[in-house]
Records
---
Amino acid sequence: MTEERSSTWFGQPRGLTVLFLTNMWEQFSYYGMRTLLVYYMTKQLLMSQQQSSLVYGAYTACAYFTPIVGGVIADRLLGKRRAVVLGASIMAAGHFMMAFESFFYVALLTIALGNGLFLPSLPSQINDLYKAGDPRRGWAYNVYYVGINIGGFIAPLICGTLGEFYGWHYGFGAAGIGMFAGLLIYLWGQRYLPPEPPRVPTVDMPAARWADHKRTFMVLAGIALSVTVFRGAYEQVGNTVALWADSGLDRGAGGFVIPMTWFQSLNPLLVMLMTPPLLNYWRRRADAGQDSSPARRMALGAVIVACAYLLLATVEWSGGGAKATWLWFVMFFAIFTLGELFVLPTGLGLFARLAPPRLGATTVAAWYLAIFTGSLSAGMVGMLWSRTSHGAFFALLGLIALASALLLRSLDGQVRKVDPTWKPDID
């Protein structure tokens, strides 16, 4: 590791800070737009709840499908750095298009296309910041995940407030400015990033390589299937749960009515607050030789998310049709976020860590394939919102999360065999 990349952020290389801040602003733009999207469709475009849920699911799915192709393009043609710059530029243009109602669908497509180049190319650079066996690498993705959520925290407060009180298009415009800020940070900080590995054309990729890693790919496919099920419940936070915040909550607080979009900041705020103590807890367990395997950790997280949804179901069933106090919603997000921290950073880190040489962006793109399929399933699950009681719907989400926990737990033994960095539990 060069002196230029000495530790400056949570004891991590400077390059991680650059990637952290770049992704923070990209997530500001994404969550700023997502915070407004379902409200914009139902209140401004006058779409039905079912139609808006389908569009929401289709958009988030496309945003995570394009990285599958974008990762291959980055590894074999553009390189990771060029892919990030080009993808960020395209996404910024798409966000600015959202300020014009007539460009709605074109803007969504443009953002999804830019995301395809950007998303797998940025986190796949994290591994190259560290020497083999560097113990800091295991927690780098949680630090990186905090950066994602700083952007997610401030986005609803800025974009949501602008959109809800001054006009939806002002909120969408602010999201575009955030994406442009992320691009500038990345261009400035490239000197702290790892050098580009050689790109390998398709014709030079021997079939034997895929055979050599067959077991790893099969395990990752199993994890992806489990995460697909998990996201069917997880993605409701920006969809049906956001609608419940508007219609099912008593948002009064001392004479002030809390804007519905502000609740979208709870999840990323709690990520920032919970991540440092959680990392310390995991570090102490690792030092004591008691660290849990990735699949077990993810399974536990899915169970915790299931408990969060079952809490909402209980609140609905016990409320007798009355609006629930917003304090229950805060408790929901606290439980939900804790579970999320066990699942999503762990899964992303597992895919990046198990990536074959020179296929980092491609393998990370496969992680986003799970998000693509999970977003599609979330859109279809969300269509049940207006067809069933809210209590029954939240209970269904809890059962979906529990199903993903069972799948993840069943993969534990196989994950241990292919993950070279895992140390067995001794507790």
---
Amino acid sequence: MSSRLDAEYADPAPLRVRIDTHARYSETTHDPGTDVLAALDLSGAEYLADVGCGDARFLARLMALGHRGPLVGIDTSAAMVAAAEAVPGVRGIRADARHIPFDDNTFDVLTARHMLYHVPDPQAALHEFRRTTKPGGTVAVVVNHAETCPHIGELVDAHAASYGIDLGEAPLRTVDSETLPGLMSDLFRAVRVQRRDNALVFDAPAPLIRFAEAIFGPRGIPADHPDRDAVLADLSADVEDWFAHHPGRTWRDPKGYVIATAIVTD
């Protein structure tokens, strides 16, 4: 994982802001966790690994639903592994998706939600997903559209550039909703794809500013950057000015994701 991503996920707070914003300010219902559960149709007894588990809310949800099988949260971030370990009944493992420290044919189900585009070699990760999942088991991968909230991203980038922050260090997004089905089809016999198109919609400055601040890390503005507060102040003034000059209008930013599921065969 790049140093930028290390910094981004060292603190789970910005991730939680992003998740909460998508839940509260999406144009239509945004619930990828429910979509994944519907795609998996779990019995509750499966040995399940969630790779790139983030703040472990998906694993906590499974426990709350009465899942009885072993649950493992795998992440490169120590903070996210700690979040998984904090969920009773969940085991946290710090590891790279390209080198999962489990034997062949271990898991009944493997999920990788909103993480594969962070991996420099997604095909290597997909090979690991297939290797560690039992024949007859299911692999479910979720990735965003290539253009996800582009207007907010452009706004953050513009203000970062005004302070000379180097935007060239952004990690390359290696896979998106258009390319994932083909990548998975190279390894799995049949891949089922569900597409969700949506948008973030804001009718006031405050939640938009909170979300913009929560993507500072991914856009190259770490928490300890000397100009971070100045960038936030300028961005906030810009957003407030936009709403002041567009009374009654909403800020709409398109987004979406796909869920690709496949059964592992011999």
---
Amino acid sequence: MSVAAVTGRPWGEPPTGLPLRWSDPAVGGAVVAPPYLLTTAVFDGSEPTGLVQYGVHTHEDALLVWPHAGSMTLHTADAVRRLVPGQGVWVPPGTPHASAADPGGVGCYTYVTRAAAPADWSAPRALRVERALQEMLLHLDVTPMDDGLRLRTQRVILELLQDDPLPALDVPVPEDWRIRGLAHEVLGDPEGDLSLEELAARHGLSVRTVTRAFAQDVGMPFTRWRALVRMSGAITLLSQGQPVNLVAHRCGYSTTSAFSAAFRRVTGASPTEYLRGL
């Protein structure tokens, strides 16, 4: 069984199932009403408690994308990120993106006013969104309270946001049209065991072309890029409680030891250590 079979769709696939169009993105999402600093929309696959927009779009305010349960997939123009509880990604104002909770997941979108956003957070960045912080955000979303108390709580929440030492893995998406088809095949089937030579032949490319294109466009060898794809999917499966040996098999590794060694090379931690950090 593949990662796609467990999560409901290939994790590199856009939330709408249609190709993402990055030119002329729409402007959408919830609006933070003055004098407040933030608001949170929750989407569990039924009806959102705030306005959630699919497809490529931007926001006037900043956005914190984080899952409360299950997993989420966030697309930006140059990368795909799979998020599990404890992880979040900061999306600066005006940044085109598309995201959705995976089947069975609960995805949350916290909109933060430009005035309250840290001035130096000008690019997407991984943040730790611990359980206590999640509950505070959800509590604010559904609980009436005095404006003064609400604003004080929102300020505390913004102070608690911190860089994540175990961030979501950013998987770069190639811009070179020659290798995009090959890249999307790997994203859609992380457990695939086709060699570089076989993948290149399937897409009418030479190994030399693929190797050079990944080095120039993505900034890393194809083998490391594919390891990133596999480990991103593995983190989701591990967070669901799947045994390490089963995750290793589903991510294309013949032995648990080979998978664990690859996981440590990519994340700097063993599978168990990584989950404990979350």
---
Amino acid sequence: MKIISSIFFLIISITAYSQGNVYKQQATKWEGLAMTPPMGWNSWNTFETKIDEELVKQTADIMVSTGMKDAGYTYIVLDDGWMTKERDANGNLVPDPEKFPGGMKALVDYVHSKGLKFGLYNCAGTKTCAGYPGTRGFEYQDARFYASLGIDFLKYDWCNTEGINAKEAYTTMSNALKTAGKPILFSLCEWGDNQPWEWGEPVGNMWRISGDIYPCFDCEYKHPENWSSWGFMKIIDMRKGIRKYSGPDHWNDFDMLEVGNGMTYNEDKAHFSMWCMVASPLIAGNDFRSMSKETLAILTNKEMIAINQDKLGIQGFRHSDENKLEVWAKPLENGDWVITFLNRSEEKKQIDFDWQKHNIKDEINNIETKFNTVTYAVKDIWNKKQLASTKKAFKAAIAPHEVIVLKLTKNK
């Protein structure tokens, strides 16, 4: 009996201890900071770690003077390379005094004085992707530092994270930002490796769905270090079935824009149009100081931006694909739609689209065009032309890598 009693006591003891280990970390992000896809500028695509306070000030000034701020671009985000290579004796991050001699807080205040918002970068791992101090083990300390600077946006990368659980790592940082007490938009840059769309909504305001973008239409750029960057259409094609996870305050992020970074005019226009169609954050990545009038016109096309910023927040979808001529659709508020024709081929195509033969339906949101019973006014957004209604077939020639974006307004 003593043996049985001892075994019984041991079982009860083990059960009691195991029952004590039931705490589950719950994410508590700052809600309501991104009810439409965030818009702004990030330093990485053009400058990588070659950043300084003069670049930031010039970028802020240009965002205001060119009308980009008025068009909706709000955030200036410094990516990797803003800090020194080591933390200080107390474990604090140190903004590089050579790059930012006036201090980071003064720079944040300058950006705020222009009516803009300021963002910084770090990483969930022990080191950032460029080898600067990562946040692993310093989440709450770093969050308090960001709050003391008054920043508004944190991009959080995924390098040097061996052995870390992605959901838990990002949840920890999300909670640290909330605890620090300053509303900071949390941008998860985990590259889609751990399906952040499935768990990201309570954790962050946006999450990357792919590795880094590259300024090309449909290529894969293989880096010597054995990783790849992707043309914007490669990213569009990369994930299947994720549009249902995107919406107000929880966006699928297709990465920063490469508009103005070396592609053709048609490709830049297609790139920007597709980011608007899929409701991706619009984070410019070019050098504003040398920006052409054509690039500025693309980035500030207010009717395209309105498509991206539509309050329904529905990610668009591919309706059809015939011989590399794709038709994309996106429902808007008030019963309106956007239809985009995209020529992925290397030759000119002819469009002959009879609206009456195409009932376009968003199966996830149960919204459909009903062209047989509903008539829409049609406007060509890029050419700024009012066209015939959907009672008449749409016919046009479309060049290689070009888009034609049509706004369909429901007749009252």
